Amino acid sequence: MHDEHLAGSPLYPRSAYARELRPALSANVFDPARSRVALVPLYLGVIAAAVIAIAKGWVPWLVMPLVSVAIGLAFAGLTFVGHEALHGAVVRGRRRQLVVGWLCFLPFTLSPRLWIAWHNGAHHAHANHEDDPDAYATLDRYHARRSTRFSVDAFALGGRRWRGVLSLVLGFTVQSADQLVTARKRGFLSPHLHRLAIAETVLGLAVWAGVAWLVGFVPFLFVFVLPLGIANACVMAFILTNHNLSPRVNVNDPLVNSLTVTTSRVVERLTLGFGFHVEHHLFPAMSSRHAREVRALVLARWPERYKSMSLGAALRALHRTARVYKDAITLYDPMTGREHPTLLPAQSFAGIQKSRG
Fold this sequence. Notes:
By secondary structure, the protein is mainly alpha-helical. It has helices spanning 14-21, 39-55, 64-86, 94-104, 112-125, 139-144, 146-155, 165-186, 191-215, 217-243, 254-257, 265-270, 277-282, 291-301, 311-320, 349-352, and strands at 5-6, 9-10, 260-262, 308-310, 324-327, 330-332, 339-341. It has one domain.
C-alpha cells in the first residue's frame, strides 16, 4: 500500500499490482509473440505493391484514394508491431529489435533508439507525471510557454473545437520530430545515441525521398502523404485516449493514470490489442495477445479501480473536455474558462461529461 492519495483514492505503484498479478498469470505470457514478425513483410508487401501499382498507372484516379487508405492502414499496422517489438514482446536481442523497429517505424521515419528512450523509458516510468513527455501541460506551464499555448490552442483535441482533428492527422509525426529535436535537452539520449537516432531518421527520410523521386510528385501524395495522415489518425486515436482523460499523478499507478479503450474484435486484431492500455502499463514487456487474461484478473481484484470505455466514447470525451491541467484532477480550457473532471477510479463515463464551469 502507498501513502499517496488522489481525490480520496489511494495510489499504488505498478510493482504492487504486478507482484499480485504475476503468480496468477499463465506460465507462457512473457514468451515473445514471434509469429507477429510475419506481419512485417506482409505489410511491407502491401505497401510495395500499392506503390508500384500507382507509379505504373495501373490504378484509376478515382480508385487511388482507396489504395492510399490501404497503404495508410499498413503503415499503422507496422507501427503497432513496432511498438510491441521494441518492448521486447516479439523478438529477443537488441539488434533484432532495432532492425524490426526501424522497418516498422519507417512510415514515420522514427528512430527506434529514440522510441525506446522516449516511450519505454520516460513515458512508461512517469505516465501522466510532470516528467512524462507525452502528458499535456499544467496551467502554469501553459501561461509560461508560448509554444505550449500555441500547440494547445491551435491543435489540441478538446473544447468542442474541430481543428483538434489536426492532432489526429498530424500528431504522431509532429511529436516524433519534436522528441528527436529535444531528446538531448530532455536527457533521453546521450550525444552518441542521439547521433545514431538522427542517422536512423535521415536514413528513413532518404528512403521516402527516393520513393518520391521514382514515382513523381502527384503519385507521392497518394503513396505517402495521404497514407501518412491516415496512419497518424489510426495511431493517435489510441495514443490520445490512453492517458489524456486521466489525472496527473505522483505515483505511477496504471489503474489511475491509464485507460483501456475497447473496439470490435476485428479492430482489436488489426491493432494488436493496443487499446488494452491499462494492461500494457502493468506489463509492458508482455505481448498484448495476453491482455484479456490480465484484464480478467484486474477486474476480479480491483473492479472499482479499473477504467475502460469504448474508443468512440473516449474520443467524444476528448473532444468535449479540455487538455490543460488546472490541478491533478481538473481539466481546464483557457479559451473558455470551462472546467472538466478527469476520469477517476470508480467514476462512470457520465461523470466526465459534466462541466463545472
